[in-house]
Write a structure and sequence with these properties.
This protein is of the alpha+beta class. It contains 21 helices and 28 strands. It has 5 domains: 125 residues, C2 domain (Immunoglobulin-like), CATH 2.60.40.150; 120 residues, Immunoglobulin-like; 210 residues, GTPase Activation - p120GAP, domain 1, CATH 1.10.506; 147 residues, PH-domain like (Roll), CATH 2.30.29.30; 70 residues. Strand 13 and strand 14 form a beta hairpin. Helix 5 packs across helix 6. The chain starts with a strand and ends with a helix.
Length: 815
Amino acid sequence: MARNTALYFRLVEGKNLPAKDVSGTSDPYCIVKVDNEIVARTATVWRDLNPFWGEEFTLHLPLGFHTLSFYVMDEDTIGHDDVIGKISLSKEYIASQPRGIDSWINLSRVDPDEEVQGEIYLELHIMQDQRKSNLHCHVLEARDLAPRDISGTSDPFVRIFCNNQTLESSVIKKTRFPRWNEVLEFDLRGIEEMDPGDQVISIEVWDWDMVGKNDFLGRVWFPLEPLQRNPAVTGWFRLLPFGNTEEEENGGKLGSLRVKVNLSEERILPSVYYQTLIQLLVESVQSFDQSDNSLVAILEEMCSAESRQEVAVKLVKIFLGQGLAVTFLDKLNMREVNYTSDPNTLFRSNSLASKSMEQYMKIVGMPFLHEVLRPIINRIFEEKRYVELDPCKIDMNRSRRISFKGSVSEQQIRESSVESLRGYLSDIIDAILGSVDKCPPGMRLCFKQLHKRVEERFPGPNYQDVKYAAISGFLFLRFFAPAILTPKLFHLREHHADPRTARTLLLLAKAVQSIGNLGQQLGHGKEQWMSPLHPLIQQSVGRLRDFLDRLIDTESDAECSHTSRTLFHPSVTIKEGFLHKRKAEAVHLVTRFTFKKRYFWLTSQTLSYSKSPDWQVRSSIPVHRICAVERVDENAFQHHNMMQIISQDNEAQGGHIMYIQCKNVNELNQWLSALRKVSLCNQRLLPTYHPGAYRNAHWTCCLQPDRTVRGCSRTHLAVTLGDWSDPLDPDAEAQVLYRHLLMAKDVLRSKYMEGLESTASEKQDIRGHCGKAFEGAAASSPARRLLSVIEDLEKAHQTFEKREREEIPNHSRCT
């Protein structure tokens, strides 16, 4: 049995941010931290005080995190980026919101005394005899302290207060991982006469500064009364900020942030407990039952609007693992089509069918999307042309000079814009309509079945376009057009578009949507200024029908079980790209010669690299030999965004460390996450590591001279980012689905079981007339079977939970 904690957060937008630049605007982006580890960074939105990011992340992490923090920053090309404000949400607060958080939250000021991190290792015990009572405080070490100096380190010392006495440790220079190993002793005579609130020991950690005041690094405190009963208190203790300062009321002067946050903590049972649920789902998809009492119908009815997205994701992944994703989608689509009377409203709602189709296209079709759109999207970003068709929005000052003969007119800008948009749109349409052979077989078969269901439901020449519109609605309106509008959210670009490029993408997305709608809205509405593109849109609609005919021209017996499973074949490359690798022998070389650009490939079996993607000679590390994948402190090499991969050849040899530099924090997090996922089940994972490097005969982090000394910081191998390309995990998917079903159990019982529940006299009457036929039908009904599965899983969870509660005291006695 395992535990799975998923922290989902979406940074939607900001509002009324303060201006940090002389231009009267800001260039805001967000940094997200879980405790003290940066886990994500949004793209920068240039020159905007009301930015929209729309970026979402799912983080898999241990249960023991404390705080989720969002920092809003202003990017500066020269100097350090400015801090605008932050939002901090405790784990307790997030967990207390079962439906999650979705609200505007005011930013608060960033107080350095509140920005503490790290832990301290202490041994406390009271020595008593007939004459006196002394408190011995053994200060051993600390780890992961906040960097307060420009070098990225601190000069920490400990200051302890007890019984009106103050003692200090020595100062350890230039480290965030100090080792003191000092005993400080306090005389406790007369302390019983003090106020009970003052009968404490307070241990503070400070950064010593030669000039100016010392910087606070955090503190812990203990009441003395429990210490007098216990022989000793020993262990690592989390450093906390000063006091319990109240949240600063700034009245929104720093602006606000709209965030969505949801925390789910799952107990993953052994696989055998989910087999009945999986089997029930499989049988429901393989059966021919299309009634309102079928399991597919029941699932759709039980899903709330809030849960439909996550339920769709889990169902699609479960059926992908079973090789039945296309069959499942066909069931959902058939139900939606049969219950739609107006073809103009087909798949227009956020039904379970629509959500499931979207998720299937993202999981199966993302590489296809990248291959089709990335070249033209990259060109649009690089050219940065000023494009505008709306006469009310044409800005003469922002346009580039089109002619060398003088200033340009509004008509010239419009003509230039039409020419640019036609060129981009033609390339996009050519790329999409020429991609039949690149489209995954699973998507093609899914669209073929959808085409058939719509044609059966709406036959005849009057509905000739409905079967095309159903497919193009998904492929163009829900897949290609959103990716063109916001390439960052579909991993086509690392950054959001600047305002000029964003406008170009918006106009192109509108045109692609019109093509997906088969040009039905052309000539109507308020945006008549798009009319110069209408001839090209109409021409593309004619080609679209031929494209869709060729797209669905696939063998119907080409079942996608093989396709869905090969998506996650072990040899498939999980991540690849150029990184900068530090030469292992380059200890004394000048910095610019120590890093070499190399192309890396990561599969579930190996991490390989060479000089270029086409280079035949590759070096590699087997994944099963990876022991840790961690960040590197900036002061180790005076470089940002560095990580280390620690591997071992065999048990007899020490670890080998490969240092790699990424170009930004997002790339760093993505590689850390990918490497941690593939090595998570390795047998020789390290519990600790050195965040620094061994240079000049000592570790730069903890200053220890022994190269083989145990690491000074805990590893973070379990912290990973969720991604559309994650491998399937049927137990985790089934557990999340069970959680949603459990919350809707009462709905299931009241809506679907009333007709199957009878009084004793009614049951006797049924037996007399129908024998056991009715009782057998009731017992085998989908609703009854689903309720039974939910109740069995609920009992299993209760059993494991009880067992855990019984084991905790036993474990405590053993330790």
